[in-house]
């Protein structure tokens, strides 16, 4: 498809050298002649054009200033520009608007709004964006790596030959461990993990209206819970592999004992804020020397966080939600959990955003320990205040443990699943067999050329390349087999989970304490035949887990090859998806082997209530707003989402099986 290839080529170039004005002649021509105001008829929503032009004329966030989506002023401007892109009447208007903005808007604001628009516009579906860690390397690689790259660049000659440089990098935990938690930096700072969380929040922004952009079709509130519950469960498994125990839960009235030294530096030279051990959160300490007026409301985040959490707990116990127009909504309905997710996330689908606020916005401001700026255009946000860096901070997991417990408080008020809720008549799981499970560290290269600055002559040559090499956790690819006996031919859904069997002291964990620690490994439909069925799956098949992302250079090279030489474009469509990195599918084992357990349950297929439709050109990964992000009508995480009644839980169509994960190589990185 030549049209798609041209779009892929043109859009991906907008991400190149994001911190500088574009050097491409055709793009410079568009940027110098295009006018949003003069093209106002080319947008399907005139109000959006007026709003953006108002912001633009008043003065947007200047270039080279730090953009944070959690800053209210920055967010309003980003939303305004996103809507301008989204409501462009055709691709040509969309592209010209993006090219113009690439040269005149703040690069962080531009990148964020453009990325959201690419994901949500129908005519850019399938466009692959370059990995965010190559677009903004400063947010993913330690400051000494950026410094070394820039220092090397200064020593280059003006040769026209290709000049390459390789930097071997470690993680922040090898420099300064303010807290033992930071020894897990190889996992928390994995670029794939950080990119996953960034792309999830690009796909489902917390500020986006569900009705206008059809996010309600995707059970966004319930999905918000499930993503964070799974992140916590996966992190807990990694902790067990390193002899750590439970994730601590934060007490807002006590100092936060877990410090964090990000080792990151912004593109303008500012360092990411550091949180010391035993950081005091009370307003006296947190806002000392800062503006105390209510216009600086983030300095009151501690009290607001307590207020919002208390109100949510009260609603869960009461069962009624007060809406902004004074009505009451029953929260214990089939859609109630999704509604609760909207309330807790603080998105526009919350029935009363003024009353329930945004826990995550104030939590990230408070716990990240960044100070309230005197000027909204001169920020130094913490790692928690960017989605691409949030999961690097151990407190991210401690904070979201509190959030997940709010959801679990609701689930505790629901009856456990009855035997018939779990039982599939005539179906029995007879055997589960896994290949030997082995993890190891291998080298991974990322291109950080975007972290450098170039003259116009150098931009024309494009002959400089700097790569960073890191050791990242990986696993040997494996297969597993499930033997199922079925009395009749029937359609089923198979769910495969894995989780811990023992805690850090080698004590068996009670199933009701342990159920939130299970990670979903696979989830698929299967046509059972009468009699014996042997299902074989491998670790590459679950669509939720995706391979390493292709670098910018390789994407561009392959697209050009397809355009000029009629070569087939070899790219995995999942790269336009937000999936979890496949290489982190398993937690790091131990040399002698660490015992985990696998759980398989087979249930009848129940079609989702929303009629799922796929467009003709849709890949296997789901399009936003179509309801194709879930397989059936069961709750996310079923059957571990509710309290377990052990008298009813153990059904023949489900089974547990111990597995052992070995780690090869001994060292961490």
TrEMBL record:
Keyword Nucleus applies: no
Gene3D superfamilies reported in the protein's UniProt record: Di-copper center containing domain from catechol oxidase, Hemocyanin, C-terminal domain, Hemocyanin, N-terminal domain
Keywords recorded for this protein, A-Z: Storage protein
GO molecular-function terms, A-Z: nutrient reservoir activity
Residue span, Hemocyanin C-terminal domain: 416-663
Hemocyanin middle domain segment(s): 131-406
Claim: tRNA processing is one of the keywords in the record: no
Residue ranges of every copy of the Hemocyanin N-terminal domain listed in the record: 4-125
InterPro entries listed in its UniProt record: Di-copper_centre_dom_sf, Hemocyanin/hexamerin, Hemocyanin/hexamerin_mid_dom, Hemocyanin_C, Hemocyanin_C_sf, Hemocyanin_N, Hemocyanin_N_sf, Ig_E-set
A single Gene Ontology CC term: extracellular space
Protein name, per record: Hexamerin-like protein 2
Organism lineage: Eukaryota, Metazoa, Ecdysozoa, Arthropoda, Hexapoda
